[in-house]
Amino acid sequence: MYELYYSSGTACLAPHIVLETLQLPYRLVETDILKGMHRTKDYLALNPAGRVPALRLPDGGIMTEAAAICLCLADLHPQSKLSPAPDHPDRPEFLRWMLYLATSIQEAYKRYFYPERYVHDPALKASVNAQAIIDLKDRWALVDSHLSKNGPYFVGGEPTILDIFMTMLVTWHQPVDALLSASPAIRRCHERVLALSAVKTCLEGQGEISPASS
Ligand SMILES: N[C@@H](CCC(=O)N[C@@H](CS)C(=O)NCC(=O)O)C(=O)O
């Protein structure tokens, strides 16, 4: 049984969708960041970085980093085609975009949502936030350009964890329509991902989360 330490509206969504798509046995363990549950002694023992998600593996090991979790699960289940095999011609392009989403786009949302963590002087928070908005616009434009030439998905003709991860990031955008109306190829990919039954299940079932003690 996998256990995903989970908080709604966060980087937990992509690993959740991957677990659901692969039909793996799992449960969600409530770790609501708005209630500070990621800062408790017990959670910090699992993930000293104090971030969600964390995934407890069936052998008891703990894995963190949303992109790494998705990649690991997808690679362990090649029949799902959620990631191209290491020797597949699409693999270099796949890895390139996986890292781009996790280190360029996800990183800019972090500055957008937590600007105070990037400045010593609180008066500069608004400037960090404004720069994050500019960076997001430029960085999403590269994604839209790639998808408009190669889409509807990042690589190949079927959705992979790249498309799932992208959809998670899209849901963070404020307002989401501003991004989607400026990015037709992102919209097309996002809408296809939203139509997947595993994605619907995850988005609808966000209330069904067990407390850590159960
Ligand atoms: N690089 C990490 C980032 C995880 C992360 O920053 N998670 C956010 C939610 S999306 C979090 O735990 N925020 C609470 C905090 O930073 O205090 C990953 O992708 O898993």
From TrEMBL:
Superkingdom assignment: Bacteria
Xref: PROSITE patterns: GST_CTER (PS50405), GST_NTER (PS50404)
Stretches assigned to the GST N-terminal domain: 1-81
Gene3D superfamilies, per database record: 1.20.1050.10, Glutaredoxin
All copies of domain GST C-terminal, residue ranges: 87-214
Protein name, per record: Glutathione S-transferase family protein
Native species: Flavimaribacter sediminis
